[in-house]
Write a structure and sequence with these properties.
Elements (H helix, E strand, L loop, with lengths): L1 H12 L12 H13 L4 E5 L6 H13 L3 H4 E5 L6 H12 L10 E6 L6 H13 L4 E7 L7 H4 L2 E5 L5 H14 L3 E2 L1 H11 L3 H12 L4 E2 L1 H8 L4 H12 L3 H15 L3 H12 L6 H19 L4 H22 L1
Parallel strand pairs: 1-4, 1-5, 2-3, 3-4, 6-7
Length: 327
């Protein structure tokens, strides 16, 4: 529980308070700046993966619009906590129908994870957005815009967020490392980007957890903290299997699983990430990817993961030998 609280504090500590501090999403930020300059905006929908700045941008818009009085004019609700129609009829409606404090003629209601709302709640929300548009603007945040009903989507200007680039992640890492006096090498930054995939929230949590162990953050420490397989070890397993040495590949894979405490599905995902970086023909990569998909399905359906992973390695051995025979 303490780790969760500490991580939340770190995330809040490094949350931007101005548009300039937000990394990535340049086009979206420019549109948001225009709304602030005009002191007017339509209903907005922020759609995209987790950890890309949706909640942060909504908060920055509110702070820039309302200044010191932003707390009185901004309400954030998480739709995944209260998914039913009552939250729309009570909390949302009560906030939306009262006038704002200050020069801006409307308040902002930020509804996080709005794709978790039931269809009945979304229908009620649609009507509320229509009735109180003079006194309140809605910002809906979701991971999947397809789960939001069309009448709500048509009332919103949709902003589609994307995962942060490696350059953006590097800038954030450098900023945090300077403030927290951390030593992070280039391999460590590469590992952080590979693991997070551009998710800034997860990046901050990993850095916070890693820094509690050592101020020197390297690739090995990062993989130990996140309990993921080192890509170099997974690549070695695949290469040994493709060379035809099934026993050594199986022993190394078992060692990696036991050392890192990984499940069969974790290993499958790690193998899939490494396949397309191997120095083999694309046709063989496609064949191996098909085998990986079959193995993943069987494990999900309840098959023994060790047996299925052994079968996967066996198919890699056969693929490698077939390639040699063709050559």
């Amino acid at each position: 529980m303490l780790m969760v609280i500490d991580s939340m504090i770190w995330t809040e500590k490094y949350r931007p308070s101005t548009f300039e501090e937000i990394k990535g999403q340049k086009e979206i930020i420019e549109r948001a700046k225009a709304f602030v300059r005009q002191q007017n905006m339509p209903h907005l929908m922020f759609a995209g993966p987790a950890g890309t700045g949706k909640s942060t941008l909504a908060l920055v818009i509110a702070k820039q619009l309302f200044g010191d009085s932003w707390r009185a004019n901004y309400l954030e609700l998480n739709a995944s906590d209260e998914r039913g129609i009552d939250v729309v009829r009570n909390k949302v409606k009560n906030f939306a129908r009262t006038k704002s404090i200050g020069k801006v003629p409307f308040k902002i209601l930020f509804l996080d994870e709005s794709d978790a709302l039931t269809r009945e709640a979304q229908q009620a929300l649609r009507r509320t957005m229509e009735m109180y548009t003079q006194t309140c603007r809605f910002i809906l945040s979701c991971n999947y815009s397809s789960k939001i009903i069309d009448p709500i989507q048509s009332r919103c200007s949709i902003f589609r967020f994307k995962l942060l680039s490696k350059e953006d992640i590097s800038e954030i890492v450098n900023k945090i490392s300077k403030r927290e006096t951390l030593q992070i090498d280039d391999k460590g930054v590469d590992a952080l980007y590979r693991i997070t995939g551009g998710d800034c929230r997860r990046l901050i949590n990993i850095l916070q957890a890693t820094s509690s162990v050592s101020k020197k953050v390297d690739e090995k420490t990062i993989y130990e903290i996140v309990a993921e397989a080192n890509p170099q070890e997974i690549s070695k397993v695949i290469e040994i299997a493709l060379s035809g040495n099934f026993i050594n590949a199986r022993n190394l894979l078992l060692d990696v699983m036991l050392k890192s405490g990984l499940s069969g599905l974790d290993i499958i995902k790690a193998i899939q990430k490494e396949i397309w970086g191997l120095p083999i023909e694309d046709k063989q990569k496609v064949t191996l990817t098909e085998k990986i998909g079959e193995t993943e399905f069987r494990i999900v359906e309840g098959s023994d993961e060790f047996l299925q992973l052994e079968a996967l390695l066996a198919s890699f051995v056969v693929s490698g030998k077939n390639k040699e025979n063709v050559g």
